[in-house]
Amino acid sequence: MTLLGHQDAWHEWREAMAGSRMHHAWLLAGKRGVGKASFAQAAARELVGADPNIEHHPDIHVLTQGPKDEKEERKREEGKPFELSRSIRIAQVRQMQQRLTTRPTAGSRRAIIIDPSDDLERNAANALLKSLEEPPQGTFFLLVAHSPARLLPTIRSRCRVLRFPTVPDAEIASLLSQLAPHSDQSTVQAAIAAAAGSPGAALAFVEMELGKVASLMRRIVEHGDPDFSLRGGLAAAIGARPDRERIQGVLDLARSTLAEMVDGSAVDPRPVIDAHAELVRLAGEHPTYNFDAGLLAMEIGTLLANAAKASERADG
User: Fold this and answer.
1) How many CB atoms lie within 10 A of CB 70?
2) Span 82-94, pLDDT tens digits
3) pTM recorded for the entire structure
């Protein structure tokens, strides 16, 4: 995917590489879907001088969520789809630290990418802190973070921050026209609104075909749902077993739908703001809780329906 808005990050990174004392730990901070992980991979390859014709380099190591359990591990070994763990575990950090006791394989530098670093278990974060405090010579850390505030302050304080801004809607629309040329315009518009400046999130929205979900949410906030039929339709459109990415997309879409209500119109903003806060809470909880898809859809629908009632009162 074409990466937008990375010019300043590249300038800062390359300027540091050209200096005599490059900082050993970098925090890549920004909204999910703005391309931080892709930047980390490309920057790491520049750092170690990777041959562009070689896909995997022995001095680039990536820590991310692994299989959830032994059953999911077997699926991965068999080449089947598998469910990810909800966090990066201490065993993974310990394994990485074992590598750090040896010299880099192909040169003088080694890159450790942690993606996303804000999904580190507490014990894993404490273990990582020790490596950041006493980094081996030639080792550089790139921590991808969607929510830097979730990281330990002591980890943040040891990192140089690279910020990745959100992207204007017009640029995202242009990108979607290239990558998803056959998507209907209503889906594209809903994707851009839900993504809130994240090209990756917008593309994921289109690929997940959430257009029907967007339409149902809009009908709920415009007309309410006194007989619960729209909420039932919403549950069916979300699906019986949505994965984490789909749930995240649905929650982002619900939040953007509410945000559209407070646009200077005669809507009483307080119930809308309360509903939005509840959606933010759900978005924060969903990575670590196993939500029942049907109950989650009903809760989202009810929050939207309550906001619709606020709109009706404001209109008199």
Assistant:
1) 8
2) 777 878 999 999 9
3) 0.75
